Amino acid sequence: MNEIRPSRPNNLDAFWMPYSDNKYFKGTPRLLARAEGMHYWTADGQEILDGTAGLWCCNAGHGRREITEAIQKQAAVMDFAPTFQLGHPIAFEAASRVAEMTPEGLDHVFFVNSGSEAADTALKIALAWQKARGQAQRVRLVGRERGYHGVGFGGMSVGGIGPNRKQFGAQLPYVDHLPHTHLPAQNRFCRGLPEHGAHLADALENLVALHGDTIAAVIVEPVAGSTGVLVPPKGYLEQLRKLCTKHGILLIFDEVITGFGRIGANFGAERLGVTPDIMTMAKGLTNAAVPMGAVATSAEVHDTIVNGTPAGIELFHGYTYSGHPLASAAAIATLELHRAEDLPGRARAMEPYFEDAAHAMRDVPGVIDVRNIGLVAGIELEPRKGAPTARALDVFRWCFDHGVLTRVTGDIVALSPPLIVEKPHVDRLFGTLADAIRAVPA
């Protein structure tokens, strides 16, 4: 067990916390001090069952010795090396390991540092590809309502979650959106892929009719996670793939959440049977031990850009830490863990039990919908009158204070535990959540 026991900080003011109610937190702090396996511990020693894999990212559980040792070993050999006009072996090895895991044909890997950077990188690659093939007029990017693609200006612009956008005014130009796929009247309490909604992909035809041949790419999450677990309707992604191919539009899958076993396969593209032209990833790539993201592209995309440039730099894009040695070491060790322990297979085997536990929540007063696929579930609560989101936040805080970490988005509680989860953990997750919903005021 990791014996490092950091002291409680005596000043909370300096850290401006992300996506947080800073005023509330610093009046009532909840601090995590240690993690191992399926659990966190607070600074006071309280054990917290991790129902969210950190932030959708610690798929192999916390404190994995293999990853820690790989980082330590690499740090002792070489802490940093640039990848602008230079290289280091471990970055190439990490890229090869990722390419072995991605769906067939997505075999070129561009390293970044986060999901946000991966989204912006994918969009820039799409624009560069269209220009390289003589389609420079294709400058329009299409996202989807309720989509989340990080917080860079590119990902925020194609994203479709209102609060992420409205505070910042102008977005990127030449952006449009497909409708979201949430149809509660037809699909409420659906297990897995909903039956209704494939026709919503046809909205892309309307955008083509409106914008002509100016659309460069469409970006969607195979399963929309941060908006509250929206699972794609049967046939929806297949139709989107068909229409993108028909109209010369690149299809980008944002697999930051669905990648690395979360829905019972290496990637959502594999589980759902649809291969995009470009795929983003992050989070589970290094089990969150070191920040890292990546973009995988087809040979057609890569070769058109690289071979279409007569000499010199082919893509004017990159980051100081692209392919960072420590992150590369963490990625290699993480992917080896996924292979050796068959974490996607474990998720698939646990899915029926997890699904049954999730849908048992429909009998809890105040639960108005349950959505699930793989080891991710969204439990939607009836909003508190006049105070949307407040009920779910109270549930989150009640759960934490009773030893379970959940995540909320709006009035939806999302559960996405590490893929090493066992049945007693599942029982406790949903049991505590049910108790919390009953305990907090409606």
Structure commentary:
The protein is α/β, with parallel strands linked by helices and 442 residues long. It has 2 domains: 22-63 and 342-439, Aspartate Aminotransferase, domain 1; 68-341, Aspartate Aminotransferase, domain 2, CATH 3.40.640. The protein has 16 helices and 15 strands. The strands form 3 sheets. The protein has a 7-stranded mixed sheet with strand order 4-10-9-8-7-5-6, with helices on both faces. Strands 1-2-3-13 form a 4-stranded mixed sheet. A 4-stranded antiparallel sheet has the order 11-12-15-14, covered by helices on one side. Strand 14 (407-409) and strand 15 form a beta hairpin. Helix 3 (65-77) packs antiparallel against helix 13, helix 4 runs parallel beside helix 13 and helix 14 runs parallel beside helix 16. The model has no long low-confidence stretch (mean pLDDT 96).
Question: Pairing-aware structural class of the strands and helices?
Answer: alpha/beta
The count of DSSP E runs of length 2 or more, i.e. the number of strands, is 15
* CATH structural architecture of the largest domain: 3-Layer(aba) Sandwich
Helix content: 25-40%
Number of domains: 2
Cofactor: pyridoxal 5'-phosphate
Enzyme class: transferase
InterPro entries: Aminotrans_3, Aminotrans_3_PPA_site, PyrdxlP-dep_Trfase, PyrdxlP-dep_Trfase_major, PyrdxlP-dep_Trfase_small
EC number: 2.6.1.18
